[in-house]
C-alpha cells in the first residue's frame, strides 16, 4: 500500500525536484527515449489502454479509450488541463510546481503517440509559480533537445505553449477551456461533437488532466499491465488526494485506492483536531455530494464504490467538517462559489445557483420560511431533474448539477438541523 | 502581418509579436495580450482593449466581451497591491472570514497614512488551490499559506511600510505564513511587479532570474 509513482522524486529531493539536472539524475526522460526508439505510436496507446488509467480531472473516463477516439484529421492538438479550480483541490499545483519535467515528459510521449506537434498547457492564472516552474522546464527542454523541430534526433517535432487563464472556474470544463484558449469567453460547448473530433480550432484535440499525463512516463517505462496491477481493478494506479478542512494533517497524499474512508481520514489524515467528532466530509471536491460517518466511514475509497454510494472521487479533494461546523453555512459557502462561477449560458444554472444561494442566505440570516426546504429542492430539481446520481442535466455542462450537491446533502443528512434553524426564524419573526 | 502598437514599450511589442506567433490563430493571444496591456496601462482600459483588438484582428467589443468574462482582468480601481483573501469552503472552515475582516479593518487603519501612489486593494476570492494551507492569501497573485488574522494585519503594515517593488512568495511566506499545502522546494526568486500574474513570457516578473539551487534559464 506504499506504492508511489508521481511523488517519489519530490519526496526524495525536496529542494530541486523541479530541475532538469535532478530529473535526469533520477531516471528522467528515459521513458521518452524508450518511446522514441523502441515503441510505435500504437504500442504506446495500447499500453495506456492496458493500464486502465482513468482520467484524473474528475470524470474518470479511461485515458487510453479517449485517445482512441482521436480523429485522423491534421493538425491535431494535445491540451493539458492545469486549470485546477475545484474547491479543495491542490494536487495538480504540487505536481506542476514540484515535478514539471515529469509532466512535460508525459506531454512529449503523449504527443508522439497521438501524432501531435503542438501541445498547450492551460494553467489557471492564480498559479503563477506553477506556470514559472513549468516554463523553466520547457525552456530547459528546448535547450536540451527534448522539444523543438527534432526531438532527440528522432525526427519528431513538438512545440509546447503555456497559456494562463484569468480566474474562471468554468474553464476547467474541457470545451470551455478550448474556447478560452481560442481567445473567447469560457463558455462550454454542446457535445457532441467531442473535442477528440472537433476540439481546438475545430481540429481533433485530446484534453487531459495534469495528473493523468504525469502518469504516462511511468506507464511507458513499466508497461500498462504493471500499472493496472496496482490497486482495485477499476481504480488502477495511484491517486493524488488533497485533504483539507478540519483534519490534523492536511495536504496531498498519493494513495492506492481500496482503503476505507475511516483509514483515510483517521490514519492517513491524522483524524480530527482536538479530538472533536467528525460530522461530514466531501469525498471529491465542492461538486460532490457529502458523506457522513454513520453511513460511509467503512465505504471503500475507489471511483466505483464512491459512485455506488451517490457521490464521486472527482479530482480528489477530501474536505473534512467536524462537529462544530454549521452545515447550512458550509453549504451556503459552496453555493456562493457556484453562483459566482456559473458562466450564464444556461438559465437553470445561471438563475438557479443564485436563487439557491439567496435562500440559504436568508435561512442563515434568521429569515427562513417553513417552505424553504421544499423551495430549495424544487429549484435544485429544475437544474438536475429527479435529484438522482449520477445527476441528470438541464444544462450544457455539469456546473449546475454540481451546485445541487450541497442542497441534496444537507436536506438528506442534516434536515433536523436545517428545520431547527428555520423554526428559530419563525419564533423570532412571529 | 503583425500589427504593432506604437505606444507600447519596445519590449512589450516584441513580447506581443512572439506570443501571437506562438499560436496557430492570433485570436488565441487575446488573454496574454490583455495581461501585457495591463502592464502598459495598469489595468484593462478602453485603449488597451482597442489595441488588443487591433493586434488580434477582432473588434474592440469582442475583446470587451472576453475581458469582462474573466475576474482577473481588472477594469481599473486596483492599487499597486491586490490582496486576495480566499474565503472558499476549505479556507472558510479554517477561519478565513476572520482573516478577511482583519485585513479590511487594518486597511481602514492605514488608509490615512498610505500615500495615494501606492494604494492597497482588498478582495475576497474563490478557491486559489491552497486548501491544505488554509487560510490562504495572495498579494498580486503570489501566495501565502497558513495566514492568521494577526499575520494578515502584519502583512498589510509591511506592504504599507516597505512598499516592495517585487512581491516574492517565499519572502511573504516566511514573514507571514504558517502551514503550507506541501513543501515548496527551493526559493523562487521571481515575483510580481503588478497586480497581474508574474510570468516571464508576459513580461510581468521582477526579481532575479535564478532561484537558490535551481537550474539556469
Evaluate the radius of gyration of chain A. Answer: 22 Å
What is the count of DSSP helices of chain A, taking H or I runs of 4+ residues?
Answer: 20
CATH T-level fold name of the largest domain in chain B? Glutaredoxin
CATH superfamily of the largest domain in chain A: NADH-ubiquinone oxidoreductase 51kDa subunit
Strand content of chain A: 5-15%
Distance between the termini of chain A: 58 Å
* CATH class category name of the largest domain in chain B: Alpha Beta
Following the backbone from N to C, one meets helices and strands of chain B in this order, namely: HHHHEHHEEEHHEE
What helical percentage do the residues of chain B reach? 25-40%
Question: What is the approximate shape of chain A?
Answer: globular
Number of helices of chain B: 8
The rounded distance between the terminal residues' Cα atoms of chain B is 30 Å
Q: In terms of per-residue confidence, which ranges of chain B show pLDDT below 50 for 5 or more consecutive residues?
A: 209-217
Summarize model confidence as the mean pLDDT of chain B. 90
Oligomer: heterodimer
Specify the biggest β-sheet of chain B.
Answer: 4 strands, mixed
CATH architecture label of the largest domain in chain B? 3-Layer(aba) Sandwich
Quick overview:
The complex is a heterodimer of chains A (about 425) and B (about 220). Chain A has about 425 residues and is an alpha/beta fold. Chain A is built from 20 helices and eight strands.
Topology record:
The complex is a heterodimer of chains A (430) and B (217).
Chain A: H1 8-12, H2 20-25, H3 30-38, H4 41-51, H5 63-68, E1 77-82, H6 91-98, H7 100-114, E2 118-123, H8 128-143, E3 159-164, H9 174-181, E4 205-209, H10 210-214, H11 216-222, H12 224-228, E5 238-245, E6 251-256, H13 261-268, E7 278-282, H14 293-296, H15 303-308, E8 317-322, H16 327-341, H17 347-364, H18 372-383, H19 399-413, H20 415-429
Chain B: H1 10-21, H2 30-41, H3 46-56, H4 60-67, E1 81-86, H5 89-93, H6 96-110, E2 120-125, E3 137-139, E4 142-144, H7 149-162, H8 169-176, E5 190-192, E6 205-207
Parallel strand pairs in B: 1-2
Antiparallel strand pairs in B: 1-3, 3-4, 5-6
Amino acid at each position: 500500500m506504499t506504492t508511489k509513482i508521481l511523488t517519489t522524486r519530490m519526496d526524495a529531493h525536496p529542494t530541486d525536484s523541479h530541475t532538469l539536472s535532478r530529473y535526469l539524475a533520477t531516471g528522467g526522460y528515459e521513458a521518452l527515449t524508450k518511446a522514441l526508439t523502441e515503441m510505435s505510436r500504437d504500442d504506446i496507446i495500447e499500453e495506456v489502454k492496458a493500464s486502465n488509467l482513468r482520467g484524473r480531472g474528475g470524470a474518470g473516463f479511461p485515458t487510453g479509450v479517449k485517445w482512441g477516439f482521436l480523429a485522423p484529421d491534421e493538425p491535431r492538438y494535445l491540451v493539458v488541463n492545469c486549470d485546477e479550480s475545484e474547491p479543495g483541490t491542490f494536487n495538480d499545483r504540487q505536481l506542476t510546481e514540484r515535478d514539471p519535467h515529469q509532466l512535460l515528459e508525459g506531454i512529449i510521449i503523449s504527443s508522439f503517440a497521438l501524432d501531435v506537434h503542438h501541445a498547450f498547457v492551460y494553467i489557471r492564472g492564480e498559479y503563477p509559480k506553477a506556470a514559472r516552474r513549468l516554463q523553466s522546464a520547457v525552456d530547459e527542454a528546448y535547450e536540451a533537445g527534448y522539444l523543438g523541430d527534432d526531438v532527440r534526433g528522432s525526427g519528431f517535432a513538438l512545440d509546447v505553449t503555456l497559456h494562463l487563464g484569468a480566474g474562471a472556474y468554468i474553464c476547467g470544463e474541457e470545451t470551455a477551456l478550448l474556447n478560452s484558449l481560442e481567445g473567447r469567453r469560457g463558455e462550454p460547448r454542446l457535445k457532441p461533437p467531442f473535442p477528440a473530433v472537433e476540439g481546438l480550432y475545430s481540429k481533433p484535440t485530446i484534453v487531459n488532466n495534469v495528473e493523468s499525463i504525469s502518469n504516462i512516463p511511468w506507464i511507458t517505462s513499466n508497461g500498462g499491465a504493471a500499472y493496472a496491477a496496482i490497486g482495485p481493478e477499476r481504480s488502477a494506479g495511484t491517486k493524488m488526494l488533497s485533504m483539507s478542512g478540519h483534519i490534523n494533517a492536511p495536504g496531498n497524499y498519493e494513495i492506492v485506492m481500496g482503503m476505507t474512508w475511516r483509514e483515510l481520514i483517521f490514519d492517513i489524515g491524522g483524524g480530527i483536531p482536538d479530538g472533536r467528532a467528525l460530522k461530514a466530509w466531501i469525498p471529491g471536491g465542492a461538486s460532490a455530494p457529502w458523506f457522513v460517518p454513520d453511513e460511509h466511514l467503512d465505504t471503500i475509497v475507489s471511483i466505483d464504490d464512491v459512485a455506488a454510494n451517490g457521490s464521486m472521487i472527482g479530482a480528489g479533494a477530501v474536505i473534512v467538517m467536524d462537529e462544530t461546523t454549521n452545515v447550512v453555512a458550509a453549504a451556503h459557502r459552496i453555493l456562493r462559489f457556484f453562483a459566482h462561477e456559473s458562466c450564464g449560458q444556461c438559465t437553470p444554472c445561471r438563475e438557479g445557483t443564485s436563487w439557491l444561494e439567496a435562500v440559504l442566505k436568508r435561512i442563515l440570516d434568521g429569515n427562513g420560511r417553513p417552505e424553504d426546504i421544499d423551495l430549495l429542492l424544487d429549484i435544485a430539481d429544475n437544474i438536475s431533474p429527479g435529484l438522482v446520481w449520477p445527476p441528470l442535466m438541464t444544462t450544457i455542462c455539469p456546473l449546475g448539477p454540481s451546485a445541487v450537491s450541497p442542497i441534496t446533502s444537507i436536506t438528506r443528512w442534516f434536515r433536523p438541523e436545517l428545520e431547527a434553524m428555520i423554526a428559530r426564524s419563525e419564533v423570532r419573526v412571529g | 502581418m503583425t500589427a504593432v502598437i506604437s505606444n507600447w514599450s519596445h519590449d512589450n511589442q516584441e513580447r506581443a509579436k512572439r506570443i501571437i506567433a506562438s499560436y496557430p490563430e492570433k485570436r488565441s493571444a487575446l488573454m496574454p495580450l490583455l495581461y501585457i496591456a495591463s502592464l502598459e496601462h495598469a489595468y484593462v482600459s478602453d485603449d488597451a482593449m482597442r489595441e488588443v483588438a487591433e493586434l488580434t484582428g477582432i473588434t474592440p467589443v469582442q475583446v470587451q466581451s472576453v475581458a469582462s468574462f474573466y475576474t482577473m482582468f481588472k477594469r481599473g480601481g486596483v492599487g499597486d497591491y491586490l490582496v486576495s483573501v480566499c474565503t472558499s469552503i476549505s479556507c472558510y472552515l479554517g477561519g478565513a472570514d476572520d482573516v478577511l475582516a482583519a485585513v479590511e479593518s487594518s486597511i481602514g487603519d492605514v488608509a490615512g497614512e498610505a500615500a495615494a501612489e501606492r494604494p492597497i486593494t482588498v478582495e475576497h476570492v474563490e478557491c486559489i488551490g491552497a486548501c491544505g494551507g488554509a487560510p490562504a492569501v495572495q498579494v498580486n497573485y503570489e501566495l501565502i499559506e497558513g495566514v492568521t488574522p494577526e499575520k494578515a494585519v502584519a502583512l498589510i503594515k509591511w506592504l504599507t511600510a516597505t512598499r516592495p517593488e517585487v512581491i516574492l512568495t517565499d519572502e511573504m511566506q516566511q514573514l507571514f505564513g504558517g502551514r503550507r499545502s506541501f513543501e515548496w522546494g527551493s526559493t523562487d526568486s521571481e515575483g510580481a511587479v503588478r497586480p497581474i500574474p508574474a510570468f516571464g513570457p508576459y513580461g510581468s516578473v521582477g526579481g532575479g532570474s535564478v532561484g537558490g539551487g535551481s537550474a539556469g534559464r
